[in-house]
């Protein structure tokens, strides 16, 4: 479970995140939905200990990420916005290397890497160096790296950005599997349809603030709109984010 309480972050004169509070439960897919520049990436970066908040707290399975960052990181799998692959390592070597960093070795690591190659449909690319990989192939490798240690909490920054329909479908299937295993899954997107297709719970962020939080039905009911699209426009106050 992930809890963000009154998170706040400024960069110079820009307030990227202003008092963001939400809880992401286990066995639930929570979507952080908001237009470009809303503060989604900055919020995720604070949750995964890359950026230190100016105010507020965040916990992962009850562990304060500022006080015990190493413990929190062990319980997290992260797909960052910059996928950041090593061009000279193969896809399989990425998964192995990050598994080793998490303390896995021997037959356990071998089995886990094979499982991910299978799960992410990476057989054709597993032993190729990642230099020159397509965007979809890069996301698969970054996902394998994020999930190799079997984290209970998974944070993904715009996981389907730039992916074709088939790759998007396989990422959605993967996230639903993680949910079925009881993982806490949080992902960000600026595309309403993406969030609507996957999420049990939607946290709408605009201008650094949470402007709505609940199920799609609750969002529609609270705005008095019939469609989720109209409800989204109503809470963020613009049509930005409706189209990719
Ligand atoms: N390192 C930084 N230095 C300066 N400004 C930053 C930095 N990181 C984020 N910002 C600013 O904070 C605001 C929120 O950015 P953030 O990347 O969190 O938004 P986002 O919701 O993830 O947007 P997008 O959908 O475009 O990725 C933006 O105005 C951005 O320019």
Explain what this protein looks like in three dimensions.
The chain has 2 domains: 1-75 and 151-244, P-loop containing nucleotide triphosphate hydrolases (Rossmann fold, 3-Layer(aba) Sandwich); 85-150, no CATH class. The chain is built from 9 helices and 10 strands. It has helices spanning 40-47, 69-74, 91-101, 106-119, 135-147, 165-180, 192-198, 216-223, 228-236; strands at 2-11, 14-24, 28-33, 55-60, 63-64, 76-79, 153-157, 184-189, 201-206, 209-214. It has a 6-stranded mixed β-sheet with strand order 6-7-8-3-9-10, sandwiched between helices. Strands 2-1-4-5 form a 4-stranded antiparallel β-sheet. The longest helix has 16 residues, at 165-180. It is globular, with a radius of gyration of 18 Å. The two termini are 30 Å apart. Adenosine-5'-triphosphate binds next to strand 2 and helix 1. GO terms for molecular function: ATP binding; ATP hydrolysis activity. This is ATP-binding cassette domain-containing protein. Keywords: ATP-binding, Nodulation, Nucleotide-binding, Transport. Residues 2-232 form the ABC transporter domain.
């Amino acid at each position: 479970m992930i809890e963000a309480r009154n998170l706040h972050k400024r960069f110079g004169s820009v307030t990227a995140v202003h008092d963001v509070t939400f809880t992401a439960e286990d066995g639930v897919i929570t979507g952080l939905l908001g237009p470009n520049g809303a503060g989604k990436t900055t919020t995720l970066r604070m949750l995964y200990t890359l950026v230190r908040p100016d105010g507020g707290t965040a916990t992962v399975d009850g562990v304060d990420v500022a006080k015990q960052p190493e413990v929190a990181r062990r319980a997290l799998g992260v797909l960052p916005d910059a996928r950041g692959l090593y061009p000279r390592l193969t896809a399989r070597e990425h998964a192995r290397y990050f598994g080793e960093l998490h303390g896995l070795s021997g037959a356990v690591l071998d089995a886990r890497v094979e499982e991910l190659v299978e799960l992410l449909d990476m057989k054709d690319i597993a032993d190729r160096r990642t230099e020159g990989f397509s965007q979809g192939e890069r996301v698969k490798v970054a996902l394998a790296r994020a999930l190799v240690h079997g984290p209970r909490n998974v944070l993904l920054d715009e996981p389907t950005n730039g992916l074709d329909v088939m790759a998007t479908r396989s990422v959605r299937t993967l996230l639903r599997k993680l949910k079925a295993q009881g993982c806490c899954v949080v992902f960000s997107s600026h595309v309403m349809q993406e969030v609507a297709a996957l999420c049990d719970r939607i946290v709408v962020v605009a201008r650094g603030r949470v402007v709505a939080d609940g199920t799609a039905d609750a969002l529609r009911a609270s705005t008095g709109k019939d469609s989720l699209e109209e409800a989204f426009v109503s809470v963020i106050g613009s049509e930005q984010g409706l189209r990719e």
